[in-house]
Backbone:
């Protein structure tokens, strides 16, 4: 049975976890997304690449219904996000966790309290219970030894790791990372990449990684969307992306290598 909310295209589109179909979005005069289409398969890690301001975060905001397209449709597991009630949207945002760029933690709370913050809001947990729950999720990112520390004691990479553990505590079906390695040094970036990779390999977590870090893309992504001037310039496998002879892709890859060299020199 199909309902009016569900899509009925041939080729079983339900197989896609997320489907963007011809999405357009403007803010006033400013056209941000222009005919954006791509899909995300269950268990896959998809990188969304593009220069700063191209619409990567705006794309993520559409995926969890914080923004609505002017035109086009976005389906999550076959359901059109635009037709979801507030209650369904709340449920959607529990199923799809967002890890923001800042990975903001509460400074006055311990790592354990930060990780269990959302769970504790729903069910009151005793201190020891909260600590045990926190350890469970910290183990998933291999950081259980941080459980009794405070954010001020953590490196940037570890802060990002704790933010990821907090996202996992919501037991999501998918996780969206917005620039997880921005402002993180190369060694810490490698740690973040390892975490994302591990969550994919070990738990088959469906993931979207918004970034302009090509090393991270190389390490974690199976497919790549490259946005340019609001359009999808490339959508395909990671290997096809890195082997592409397309001028714009070559330029994008080169500019990232220059940036990496500059960072290493500092
Ligand atoms: N809520 C909003 N209102 C108006 N303009 C916005 C809003 N959100 C994003 N924009 C604009 O949309 C463009 C894309 O933003 P964004 O998706 O954040 O870029 P990035 O690719 O760096 O993540 C930017 O020009 C930004 O200023
Ligand atoms: Mg952004």
Residues:
């Amino acid at each position: 049975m199909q309902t009016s909310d569900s899509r009925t295209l041939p080729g079983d589109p339900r197989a896609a976890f997320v489907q963007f179909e011809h999405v357009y979005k403007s803010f006033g005069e400013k056209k941000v997304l222009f005919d954006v289409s791509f899909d995300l398969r269950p268990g896959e890690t998809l990188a969304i690449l593009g220069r700063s301001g191209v619409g990567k975060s705006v794309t993520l905001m559409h995926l969890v219904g914080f923004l609505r397209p002017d035109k086009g449709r976005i389906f999550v597991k076959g359901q059109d996000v635009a037709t979801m009630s507030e209650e369904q949207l709340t449920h959607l945002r529990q199923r799809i966790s967002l890890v923001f760029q800042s990975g903001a933690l509460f400074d006055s709370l311990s790592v354990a309290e930060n990780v269990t913050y959302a769970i504790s809001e729903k069910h009151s947990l005793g201190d020891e219970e909260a600590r045990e729950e926190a350890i469970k999720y910290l183990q998933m990112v291999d950081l259980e030894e941080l459980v009794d520390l405070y954010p001020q004691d953590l490196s940037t990479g570890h802060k990002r790791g704790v933010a990821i553990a907090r996202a996992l505590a919501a037991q999501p079906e998918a996780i969206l990372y917005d620039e997880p390695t921005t402002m993180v040094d190369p060694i810490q970036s490698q740690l973040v990449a390892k975490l994302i990779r591990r969550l994919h390999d070990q738990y088959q977590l469906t993931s979207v990684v918004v970034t302009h870090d090509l090393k991270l893309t190389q390490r974690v992504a199976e497919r790549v969307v490259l946005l340019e001037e609001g359009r999808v310039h490339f959508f395909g496998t990671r290997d096809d992306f890195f082997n592409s002879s397309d001028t714009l892709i070559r330029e994008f890859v080169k500019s990232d290598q220059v940036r990496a060299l500059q960072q290493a020199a500092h």
Summary: Residues 27, 32, 50, 52-58 surround adenosine-5'-diphosphate (ligand 1) (CB under 6 Å).
